[in-house]
């Protein structure tokens, strides 16, 4: 195998691999003559790793930071050039070639170089790689963990299991691509620990993890300095988007209940992802992103439950402790707030055949009784900062926000806020807001991101990360539909 086929796209890379074989599988070298290989080998990952929590002591703690750290991003207002293009349908500049309108980035003929071009790029792409490795491990692990009978009881067939296996292999490709872009310091595969104990919980967890992966990338992809990295990442994240929808279908949910998929900041994705990473190799490249305190949705809608999820507007401060009546804590983890599938058999919708009430795996289901609705009381509790979290318990949750006052709802093109009524300093409730993204498209549906904030700052999809200094806790994933 020649060097170029080892490093694929990256024949130009400025460093040398001490031992390419240590990182990349070799293509088959023996057997009958085959056509010349054009395929690039993929990253090597251990096939069997333990899935337990980390019990050691971290050798380093905290996010990486630079030698100089500023005090915040200023609000600069409009850039003067932002509105000068006339947008009148005429051509305003000479065309560089026939049929080629002037403008664009990376369109002038320079050779593309598929690397990171800034700290922002390296940290964002590394986060995406941590995510791909979680998914690679998660999909394989789910298949290995549960029996054929377990999958069948959840309505999933051998063909469905093959689709999960295929999705795991897609992650091998995504991890390879990102490793090639990042080079020798690319983060490696870690060990993981997941909260699920049933197939339905595994499917819901996977649906939520792929939502984090997809939305986490949308949040930064248009900000990358490396336009070259951005196109490859687009080509992988569109695949991830399909995975997210397939897990929704496996869960018996309406496959795509929104018109737009939300993008969220890197620190939101890292906050949600990192608790499931138990330990990483000693010299693992660390990340610069923030871990916010964890957010728990006490009456998270439960897609495995028939009919209206319990936990509605009748909850009061005194009944919030009554889990029988209100279906409280039907989750197995804060953050992702993954469902607990242990509901009474007559409350499970997995074998239901009723129109509008079934959550048996399917291309689509009407859930005619929605999982949530505007006006629903949503009860929340959250941690205080300073807790160790993530790989080797080596990151520390932090916030720079003031007192909790709002719940931010990030969904589709919108970030909107609802007032928070505190029960005590780390818990309270809010009312699910009522808004449409465009007429006919209720904004809050599917898996949405909610966070506790100290203010109702106006942000839009391109500057949503300006909210980070105001996040008290979260995000948590709210299963609106
Ligand atoms: C930067 O990291 C060092 C070492 O973890 C820590 O002591 C310091 O407080 C950090 N500085 C900032 C501004 O986060
Ligand atoms: C071509 O575009 C790249 C950025 O996309 C820029 O760095 C370079 O200077 C441009 N080259 C010329 C000749 O304009
Ligand atoms: C659903 O039906 C399958 C058999 O097809 C069974 O194994 C499973 O226990 C049932 N689940 C529930 C919650 O009734
Ligand atoms: C970590 O150490 C291993 C073994 O020495 C080496 O192969 C790998 O490249 C190192 N990783 C990083 C990110 O430096
Ligand atoms: C979500 O969308 C589905 C499909 O249109 C709809 O049935 C459901 O009522 C919606 N849920 C909410 C909370 O708007
Ligand atoms: C819960 O208690 C808080 C503080 O005592 C109070 O402001 C709020 O109105 C109460 N909420 C409900 C639903 O009773
Ligand atoms: C729900 O979970 C929270 C956080 O773990 C806990 O404080 C609360 O007591 C639980 N409530 C019930 C009704 O189990
Ligand atoms: C919870 O609510 C149910 C139904 O309203 C009631 O029967 C039960 O006594 C309540 N439990 C507690 C501990 O308040
Ligand atoms: C799910 O809920 C059941 C019943 O409350 C409980 O026994 C089980 O431990 C929960 N599962 C997880 C993974 O927390
Ligand atoms: C599915 O839901 C839509 C929107 O509520 C409704 O118009 C349609 O009649 C439903 N279809 C069936 C078969 O229930
Ligand atoms: C606040 O209320 C939550 C939910 O009832 C509870 O889990 C938590 O222990 C309380 N915190 C304090 C500081 O009282
Ligand atoms: C939601 O986003 C759309 C599209 O940007 C915008 O028109 C609408 O005003 C937003 N709604 C709210 C409540 O922010």
TrEMBL record:
KW Signal (keyword) present: yes
Signal sequence coordinates: 1-18
Domain of life: Eukaryota
Keywords, alphabetical: Signal
InterPro entries: Rds1 (IPR039254)
Name the record gives this protein: Protein rds1
Species annotation: Monascus purpureus (Red mold)
